[in-house]
């Protein structure tokens, strides 16, 4: 069984409340920082999408 370490919680850039993770999605316009980040079949970089339960801010970061 593989154990995956979770990333630190994402904080809202506006109000600093911990954000909720909603989905991982393909960002076709993102530029890969390393060859391992982009899948040839996918044609983009996978990003995690978060929303703030307090103010509604939406933010993304590269999925791990």
Description:
The chain has 64 residues and is an all-beta fold. It has one domain (1-64). The protein contains no helices and four strands. The chain has strands at 20-27, 38-39, 44-51, 58-62. Strands 1, 2, 3 and 4 form a four-stranded antiparallel beta sheet that branches. The radius of gyration is 13 Å and the shape is elongated. The protein starts with 19 loop residues before the first strand and ends with a strand.
What's the layout of helices and strands?
Elements: E1 20-27, E2 38-39, E3 44-51, E4 58-62
Antiparallel strand pairs: 1-3, 2-3, 3-4
Please provide a brief summary of the model.
The chain is mostly beta strands and 64 residues long. The chain has one domain (1-64).
Helix count, per DSSP? 0
Structural class: mainly beta
Task: Label the overall shape.
Answer: elongated
- Can you summarize the main beta sheet? 4 strands, antiparallel
Any descriptors?
single chain, 64 residues, mainly beta, four-stranded antiparallel β-sheet, 0% helix
């Amino acid at each position: 069984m593989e154990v995956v370490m979770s990333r630190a919680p994402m904080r809202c850039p506006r109000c600093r409340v911990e954000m909720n993770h909603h989905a991982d999605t393909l960002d076709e316009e993102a530029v890969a920082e390393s060859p391992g980040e982009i899948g040839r079949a996918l044609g983009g970089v996978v990003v995690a999408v978060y929303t703030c339960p307090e103010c509604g801010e939406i933010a993304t970061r590269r999925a791990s």
